[in-house]
Structure formats: structure tokens, C-alpha cells
Specification:
Layout (H helix, E strand, L loop, with lengths): L2 H13 L3 E2 L1 H11 L6 H14 L6 E2 L1 H24 L9 E5 L6 E4 L4 E4 L10 H20 L13 H4 L17 E11 L2 E5 L4 E5 L4 E2 L16 E8 L5 E7 L6 H7 L13 H13 L5 E4 L7 H15 L7 E5 L14 H16 L2 H6 L1 E5 L18 H10 L3 E3 L4 E5 L2 E7 L2 H7 L13 H12 L28 E5 L5 E5 L2 E5 L3 H4 L1 E6 L4 E6 L1
Parallel strand pairs: 1-2, 8-11, 9-11, 12-13, 13-14, 14-15, 17-18, 18-20
Antiparallel strand pairs: 3-16, 4-5, 6-7, 6-10, 7-8, 10-11, 12-21, 16-17, 19-20, 21-22
């Protein structure tokens, strides 16, 4: 390769903070030689992959570069094989569906102040250390997010925090012997019956919440449902008996999505695959052109209920006759009106209902040809346990539907969909009632009285879909990262048994399509404008 490309490679690596040795440069040029028509894209992809690896030095020799290059070439070979075999992915990369058990797992290193991908094996039945890491990872995630907020950053030149308007966070272990008001960050836990504590990575302190009020503006932390396991910021002072009396309390401030990506560029948190700048621009243009695309979302679709099936037929027939059919139908559980627990033995009937549904959809030729059907299990559907994340429905139950409708996928709960550049999270769980019942103090009414808005604020500020105590909602310890939502996605769909709602919170579109089997309500989402139409039949 010529000196022009060599200089470009040196410049690009230097912009990312790397210096190439001669043998490493040769390896990079050899890799780029395999992509004569897409050298820039290949170079950006190589840099993004290098950024995700834990490198011991910024001066790169041949070994780390060769390792990343071999991984990329292997992935390219597998992609070609999948394309030859006729894979599920769309040719235009407009739709990528990601199962929870395929989500990438990242851990934050507070010393290096960067995320690194976890390459070990996640055990479904982990030991006690995995439970400790669950809470540690949640705390470090929010702690690093808080460190970017100017309100909680220590002034560089001004020693008086009150003058600059900042609120310095102190570690809980440093409260011993301290007087005056202090700010702390910790996880609410009940270490003794009736006694609540705040815990960070250094210590735990008992708290008194009787005088607590929600944090006032301008930090916008007044909304939210405060339950055990949530991580909060608290202002207060130590009493003589060693209890931290809370005066103000709120969630860590939310970080803008673009700011998160700026801080950690090149990391694929979502799992849809890293994109070059050119590819991102191209997909955004295609997304803007897809003005007629829409997703139809139904939750709590009980297939064993005759009236539910009749109403579903009305919806399918209606969209069959539209000029543009929906690109996606998302059906969330529960798919049976009775819980599939140990006393349930009608598995053949569920299989029959899915077969019946497949025939119903196949009767609408345009929907069968142009629409994709996704199925997400509910909390009472068939599965190994009620712990989150839940795996997809067993193939034995769903294979007859798949035979009728090839363009279908049975996914985990939660799951993610990447539509061009737009990131959408789907989660089916009856959260609202359980969160409100578990509240330690009444929600603030200063900003809103709508409980769904409080729920949305809670999960977004916690960067977690289900911040309930593990005793109320079990979570597979090693897979807690599947419930994290950092950076914040563009859209969150919360399938809940409560009344259908739609709410935009700090630029995030959140909505509950309602319970289809209860009142035949559903939602239509238009990704072009990110608008939600709450509907019913």
C-alpha cells in the first residue's frame, strides 16, 4: 500500500490515542488490503474493536492487532456462511433482533475509568460472589454516571462547594465523627427487620426516612418510586446515636444518551453491532425515508380466550386491507389465561392454540409475506422459572406456528430490537402494581401524580428495568446486565397489566400497550416520528 494510506492509518490511530510499531502497521495494512473498496470502513471497525479490548499499553505491537484482525476475519467468514444459508437478518440491516442471553456484558473499572467487556461464561446457577457482583456492578454504573454531572462534581479551583453550587458525594465510611449536612449515595437495603440502611462499596449506615422529601429542582429528581434495592442520593446529617437522618432524597440524575456515547465511543452496549460513521449516516437516511413503517404491539394476548382471538382476527384483517402493512407485530404474554405453574398440565392445548394462531395469520397473505411476528413471554408463561431474564417459549410449543409463518421469532423477556439506528427495548412484567406496593414512602406529587410516569422515571434513573428487591422479583445473578438500560435507548415498551399509557421522558419514548385480553387495547408505534398511537377494538 502507498504512503497515503500509511499516513492515514497513523493519523487515525493517533486520534484514538494509539501509536503503531512497524510490525503492527504491517498487520493493519494487510487487513485493509482485503477490503479495497471499503478501506475507511474497515479501518474504523478495526479501531472500534481495539477500543473494546483491555490493552496494556497505548503503544501497539503486532500481537494485539493480529488478535483483533483474526477475530474480524472470522466474523466476516461466519456472516458469509449465514448469508449463503439464508439467515433471518434483513438484507438492508434495517432490523436486528437481540435475545437477552446474547446481550454483551460490560463491567466498569473505577480505576481505569472505562468499561471492559466480560468474556467469561455466565452461569445460570451462580455462587454467592455473583450476587455481590450484581449489586457492585449496578452501583458502579450509576456512580460513573454521577461523576459526569456538574452538580455533583468537586470544584477544581473553588474550595467552597456551596458557592459553586455543587454537592460533593462522600463515602459512607467517612461519616463517622462528622457533623453537618452531607451528601451520600447508596443502595437502600433492610439489613434488619424494620431498619433501613444505605450501603455503598465502603460501609452501611442506618437511615431515618421519616422527614425525607423528594429532591427539589433544578436536578429534576422529584419523580420516582423509592423501593428497596434502588440506589439513591441522600442529603442529611448524622445523629448522636449513629443514624443518618435524611432531609432530601432522590435518584442519581439521568445522563443524556449522546453524552454517554461521547464518553465511551466505540462500545456496543446495545448488542446490535458496532457501526462506522458512514454506515450510521447511511442507515439514518434510510430510516428517514421509511415514513410508513409501523409496529403493532399487543400485550397479554391469551390465545385460549375465544373473544381475544376474535378481536385479534379483526386487527389482522384490518391491517391486511391497509395500503401499507405493519413491518412488525409484537405479541407479548401471557399467552394463556391460567398460570403455567406446577399445577398446569395442558401443554398440548397451548401448542394447539399457537397452531391455530399460525393458520389465522397465514390466511392473510400480505401480512404473512411482508410482516414479521415476534413473541415475548409473560410472567406466567411456560418456562423454567419466574426469574428474569426469561428464556423464549419452548420450541415444542411454537414450532407449528413457525411452520405456518416462517417470518417469526420467539424471543426472551426482555429483548431488544435495533431498527436502522433506533434502539428499542421490550419488557413484559406487571411492574407498576408491585413497585407501588413496595414503596418505602409515598411518591412525590410536585411534578406528577401519574404512577406510570413515576415508574418510567424510576427505571430510567436506575438504568435498570426491574429495580425491585430480589425477594419480590428473582433475577439470575449472572444475567442482571440483561436488564440494564445504559445508555438510555430511544424507546422502552413496558408491557403491563395496567391501563395503557404513553409518556415521553427526557427524550425517551415510553409506553404501555395495555392488556389486550382485558380491554382489547393495543399500541401502534411509528419509528419514523417515534409517535405512539394508543388504540383499542
Amino acid at each position: 500500500m502507498g504512503s497515503v494510506m500509511r499516513n492515514k492509518v497513523q493519523r487515525k490511530f493517533k486520534m484514538r490515542g494509539y501509536t503503531l510499531k512497524i510490525d503492527a502497521m504491517s498487520e493493519v495494512l494487510r487487513f485493509l488490503g482485503g477490503f479495497p473498496e471499503a478501506e475507511d470502513e474497515a479501518l474504523e471497525l478495526l479501531l472500534d474493536e481495539l477500543h473494546q479490548h483491555s490493552l496494556t499499553s497505548s503503544i501497539l505491537d503486532k500481537e494485539p492487532v493480529e488478535k483483533v484482525v483474526s477475530q474480524l476475519l472470522k466474523c466476516e467468514f461466519l456472516d458469509e456462511e449465514n448469508a449463503t444459508a439464508g439467515g433471518y437478518a434483513s438484507d438492508s440491516n434495517d432490523l436486528r433482533i437481540i435475545d437477552a442471553f446474547d446481550f454483551p456484558k460490560f463491567r466498569y473499572d473505577p480505576i481505569k475509568k472505562q468499561f471492559h467487556i466480560f468474556t467469561g461464561k455466565c452461569a445460570v446457577h451462580g455462587d454467592a460472589s455473583q450476587k455481590v457482583l450484581l449489586y457492585r456492578d449496578r452501583f458502579l454504573l450509576l456512580s460513573q454516571r454521577l461523576s459526569h454531572d456538574p452538580h455533583f462534581s468537586k470544584p477544581v479551583f473553588d474550595s467552597d462547594a456551596s458557592v459553586s453550587g455543587s454537592c460533593q458525594i462522600v463515602q459512607i465510611q467517612s461519616l463517622v465523627g462528622q457533623t453537618g449536612k452531607k451528601w451520600i449515595m447508596g443502595l437502600i437495603s433492610q439489613l434488619e427487620d424494620g431498619h433501613f440502611y444505605l450501603e455503598d462499596l465502603t460501609a452501611a449506615v442506618e437511615i431515618e426516612l421519616s422527614n425525607a422529601i423528594s429532591l427539589l429542582t433544578p436536578l429534576d429528581l422529584t419523580t420516582g418510586l423509592f423501593v428497596e434495592n434502588t440506589i439513591v442520593l441522600a442529603e442529611g446529617e448524622m445523629t448522636l446515636d449513629g443514624i443518618f437522618r435524611v432531609k432530601t432524597c432522590g435518584f442519581p440524575p439521568l445522563e443524556d444518551r449522546e453524552k454517554s456515547f461521547t464518553m465511551f465511543s466505540g462500545i456496543d452496549f446495545f448488542g446490535g453491532g458496532s457501526l462506522s460513521k458512514e454506515e450510521t449516516i447511511r442507515l439514518r437516511e434510510l430510516e428517514r425515508e421509511s415514513v410508513n413503517d409501523m409496529f403493532v404491539i399487543l400485550s397479554n394476548v391469551c390465545l385460549d380466550d375465544e373473544q381475544t382471538m376474535e378481536k385479534l382476527e379483526i386487527i389482522l384483517s384490518g391491517y391486511e386491507n391497509e395500503s401499507v402493512v405493519p413491518s412488525l407485530f409484537i405479541l407479548m404474554g401471557n399467552f394463556c389465561s391460567r398460570p403455567c405453574n406446577l399445577s398446569f398440565n395442558s401443554y398440548s392445548s397451548i401448542r394447539h392454540q399457537f397452531s391455530k394462531l399460525g393458520k389465522m395469520v397465514a390466511a392473510h397473505q400480505r401480512l404473512k409475506t411482508h410482516s414479521t411476528f415476534l413473541f415475548i413471554p409473560g410472567p406466567d408463561d411456560l418456562g423454567p422459572s419466574n426469574a428474569l431474564p426469561r428464556c423464549s417459549l419452548p420450541k415444542h410449543i411454537t414450532e407449528e406456528f413457525s411452520n405456518h409463518i416462517p417470518k417469526s421469532a420467539f424471543l426472551s423477556n426482555p429483548c431488544r430490537v435495533k431498527y436502522y439506528t433506533q434502539e428499542i427495548v421490550f419488557f413484559r412484567q406487571d411492574l407498576l402494581y408491585r413497585m407501588r406496593r413496595s414503596c418505602l414512602m409515598p411518591p412525590s406529587t410536585e411534578e406528577t401524580t401519574d404512577l406510570f410516569e413515576h415508574l418510567v422515571a424510576t427505571i430510567t434513573h436506575q438504568s435498570h428495568l426491574c429495580p425491585l428487591p430480589l425477594s419480590i422479583q428473582p433475577i439470575i445473578w449472572s444475567y442482571d446486565h440483561c436488564l440494564q438500560i445504559y445508555p438510555t435507548p430511544h424507546t422502552i415498551v413496558l408491557g403491563d397489566n395496567s391501563e395503557q399509557k404513553a409518556f415521553k421522558y427526557t427524550g425517551i419514548t415510553c409506553f404501555n400497550p395495555g392488556s389486550f385480553s382485558s380491554d382489547f387495547s393495543f399500541a401502534v408505534y411509528r419509528p419514523y416520528s417515534r409517535e405512539v398511537e394508543l388504540s383499542a377494538v
